[in-house]
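Design job #97: recover the sequence.
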């Protein structure tokens, strides 16, 4: 190496430190294209950082981003962020990962995930405007878990999701629940429905969304236990989410009920048919074979009739209870009811059926099992709450 080249590379490093990234990059690009063998470790590191600042950090040119990222991964190796504050290799690859994830390009996402060793990622989270952002290690596992599920590599999805549950010390926005969800979805696809149900039980402790109940019901239906499936169909059908996003739930209910309660099953099939018809969607063959008369069906009446059935089903083994609303939290989303038996019960305001909820109001209610995540134990909460006059 001539003294002139060495002098210019030192100058390029100095320019980078002065934040003159373009000038620094011009020198590095010139000599790397002509004499890559003269670059020492520190030359490669600063060249990588110059590339990151100029073409990666705020890149709007996707082709240039990919081209630059490939070069950076040739120039330097991934360093351990538990020992160093920053690494051009890791920062650059994650810019590519973020882009691919945002575009739902899961196949290419997996290819780039293979360039990262998660053991060299840190678990440092940061806050901005009261929001907590994931660490790079958690983001890696989030991306990998989702990508393998979407690419139907179910065994790999299970493996990487279980690694996340074992290796991560903290989970942002209930990400541990989503790892359990993807494990359960993968086990179902692998026809290991009992294993799927184990993980769905963990999901249900935290998330009471209709699609969780539907997923559990579907696994029981596949296992041939339609009686158990009905228990979970009930909560999914009684949810208040729009019918259009729950349409396939009513098809599952039809298949689950058609042997034990054909008339009720038909009502669900008719509601499914009405929703699909509104959206001009293709019908399954077994629904077409029912020869449903679209003229005679009324979607709103069917929904009301079906909900009335499932509401009665849900509380068939309970007596209606009464009590007083003794506490509504400042955020207005939850509170406590003291029953006439002097038992204090947590409730969500969304379970109140009526207007003008207030402390001191006398109400009727039923109860259901819940899970207190802060105390990590099962609990009981009040539901289907109605004001009593």
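Job complete. Output follows.
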């Amino acid at each position: 190496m001539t003294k002139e080249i060495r002098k210019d590379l030192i100058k390029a490093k100095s320019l980078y430190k002065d934040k003159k990234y373009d000038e620094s990059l011009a020198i590095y690009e010139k000599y790397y294209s002509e004499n890559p063998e003269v670059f020492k470790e520190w030359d490669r590191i600063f060249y990588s950082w110059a590339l990151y600042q100029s073409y990666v950090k705020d890149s709007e040119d996707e082709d240039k981003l990919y081209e630059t990222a490939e070069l950076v991964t040739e120039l330097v190796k991934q360093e351990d962020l538990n020992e160093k504050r920053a690494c051009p290799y890791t920062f650059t690859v994650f810019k590519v990962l973020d882009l691919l994830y945002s575009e739902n390009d899961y196949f290419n996402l997996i290819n780039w995930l293979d360039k990262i060793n998660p053991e060299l990622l840190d678990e440092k989270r940061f806050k901005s405007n009261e929001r907590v952002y994931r660490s790079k290690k958690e983001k890696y596992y989030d991306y990998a878990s989702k990508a393998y599920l979407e690419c139907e590599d179910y065994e790999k999805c299970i493996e990487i999701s279980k690694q996340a549950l074992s290796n991560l010390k903290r989970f942002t926005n209930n990400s541990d629940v989503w790892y359990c969800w993807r494990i359960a979805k993968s086990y179902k696809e692998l026809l290991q429905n009992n294993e799927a149900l184990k993980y769905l039980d963990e999901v249900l402790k935290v998330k009471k969304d209709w699609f969780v109940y539907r997923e559990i019901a579907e696994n029981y239906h596949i296992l041939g236990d339609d009686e158990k499936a009905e228990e979970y169909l009930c909560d999914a059908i009684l949810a208040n989410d729009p019918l259009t996003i729950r349409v396939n739930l009513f098809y599952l209910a039809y298949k689950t009920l058609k042997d034990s309660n054909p008339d009720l099953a038909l009502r669900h099939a008719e509601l499914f048919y009405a929703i699909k018809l509104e959206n001009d969607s293709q019908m399954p063959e077994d629904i077409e074979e029912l020869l449903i008369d679209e003229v005679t069906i009324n979607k709103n009446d069917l929904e009301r009739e079906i909900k009335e059935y499932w509401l009665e089903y849900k509380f068939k083994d309970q007596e209606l209870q009464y009590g007083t609303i003794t506490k509504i939290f400042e955020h207005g989303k939850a509170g406590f009811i003291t029953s006439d038996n002097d038992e204090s019960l947590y409730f969500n305001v969304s379970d109140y059926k009526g207007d003008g909820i207030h402390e001191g109001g006398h109400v009727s209610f039923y109860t259901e099992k819940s899970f207190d995540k802060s105390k990590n134990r099962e609990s009981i909460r009040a539901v289907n709450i109605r004001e009593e006059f």
